[in-house]
Specification:
Elements: H1 3-9, H2 23-34, E1 45-50, H3 53-61, H4 68-71, E2 74-81, H5 86-100, H6 108-118, H7 122-147, E3 151-152, H8 160-167, E4 174-183, H9 202-205
Antiparallel strand pairs: 1-2, 2-4, 3-4
Helix pairs in contact: 2-7
Protein name: Nitroreductase
Family: Belongs to the nitroreductase family.
Keywords: Flavoprotein, FMN, Oxidoreductase
Length: 210
């Protein structure tokens, strides 16, 4: 399915039918999410993949009782770094250097310049910036799911502090920022399934500056 057709097909599924998504499709979606761009290539987030039904029930309880969480095949949670540090940045750059086979000091100047910009901005800015990088990966995962004709429901409707507790994220230096249930639509019981997709008209949405 072409990407534009896939995006026209998808919608924010409100009711899923509990059918399992084949692992190869989940793997494809996760690979797409991993390949997403991020600022300076830091990838300051991780994705948690949840299939345990008991844990999904607990997540639903802190997600305003949204049934997609328990009816989904897989629930993906994007958790972003709670802050940057020179050590974290160095670890990413060291891996890049090793994999590219370039001199050990090749990125030292850039690394110091980057940390020099980030450090004075404070942890709140750090956490917000890391979360924005997670959103890029999240968007690509949604598109990949549509391409695979897997339904996905983008969710910010949850209590982050409670999700953090359930997944032990604070101990890992992470904050939950986004949730994406994956599954298949329940056509008979989803009020949104047959409604027309409405978007801003192209001439209002796009401004060309020549």
């Amino acid at each position: 399915m072409a990407l534009i057709d896939a995006l026209k097909w998808r919608y924010a599924t409100k009711k899923m039918n509990g059918q399992a998504v084949p692992q190869e499709k989940v793997d494809y979606i996760l690979e797409a999410a991993k390949l997403a761009p991020s600022s300076s290539g830091l990838q300051p987030y991780k994705i948690f993949v949840i299939t345990n039904q008991e844990l999904k029930e607990k997540l639903r309880a802190v997600s305003f009782d949204q049934s997609q969480v328990t009816d989904a095949s897989h629930v993906l949670v994007w958790a972003a770094w709670d802050g940057y540090s020179l050590e974290k940045i160095s670890a990413v750059f060291d891996k890049t250097i090793a994999e590219r086979g370039i001199p050990a000091d090749a990125m030292d100047e850039y690394k110091q310049r980057l940390w020099g910009m980030y450090e004075p901005l404070g942890q709140e800015w750090h956490a917000h910036h890391a979360a924005k990088q997670a959103y890029i990966s999240f968007g690509i995962a949604i598109a990949a799911a549509a391409e695979q004709q897997v339904d996905a429901t983008p969710m910010e409707g949850f209590i982050p502090a409670e999700v953090d507790k359930l997944l032990g994220l604070n101990e890992l230096g992470l904050n939950s920022v986004l949730v994406l249930p994956l599954g298949y639509r329940d056509d008979a019981n989803d009020w949104l399934v047959n409604l027309k997709k409405v978007r801003t008209a192209q001439e209002e949405f796009i401004t060309e500056i020549k």
